[in-house]
Specification:
By secondary structure, the chain is mainly alpha-helical. Helix content is about 60%, strand content about 0%.
């Protein structure tokens, strides 16, 4: 018996004879290899036969479940890229539909990445809105979920000083304008 069949166990030789007894129990190694190769290059539409029983059926079902999860993950990533990245709907997150192991960790990692990338935009938008409404005391948090923000963050006092100077210039300019208009009367 070839070594690859010993590793697979109960899988029969490739190219089973059609119509032979027990045909429903066969999983062609050539078909399995083709499906694995398709999955390797990102074709998540491929499936193995779903009518197998016994060990070949368990192998086929497990393969189909894994590839379906990969297909769902690819669809979710594409969807969140469209909805969050292009449409700007920042509340959308991925849901892979598997709540255990590395699948759940990958889902959590992607969602955390989205949150971390959106945080500065959300914070700055909130601060700009407050300033536009006249609230010059609005602050921007320098942490995300209790973790300090990474990178260089300019001092807020520096920006406040520039804002105060600009406001003073506008006020002085408007006083001078009003004085000229009173003088013309």
């Amino acid at each position: 018996m070839p070594q690859d069949q010993e590793i697979i166990g109960a899988l029969p030789p490739a190219g089973g004879v059609p119509g032979a007894a027990g045909e429903d129990e066969t999983l062609d190694l050539h078909s399995l290899l083709q499906a694995l190769q398709a999955m390797r290059v990102g074709d998540f539409s491929v499936r193995l036969r779903g009518d197998l029983t016994g060990l070949p059926g368990k192998v086929a079902d497990t393969f189909n479940e894994i590839i379906a999860t990969n297909e769902r993950m690819a669809e979710q990533l594409e969807q969140v890229g469209q909805v969050v990245g292009r449409e700007g709907k920042t509340r959308k997150r991925v849901r892979f539909g598997v709540a255990s192991g590395a699948w759940a960790e990958m889902e959590n990692s992607v969602n955390t990445l989205i949150d971390d990338l959106l945080w500065p935009t959300t914070a700055v938008t909130r601060a700009i809105t407050a300033v536009a409404q006249g609230d010059l005391l609005q602050t921007v948090r320098l942490d995300v979920d209790g973790r300090p923000a990474q990178g260089r963050v300019p001092a807020l006092g520096h920006h406040r000083q520039h804002h105060d100077q600009a406001a003073q210039r506008l006020h002085v300019g408007s006083d001078a304008c009003c004085a000229r208009s009173r003088h013309r009367r």
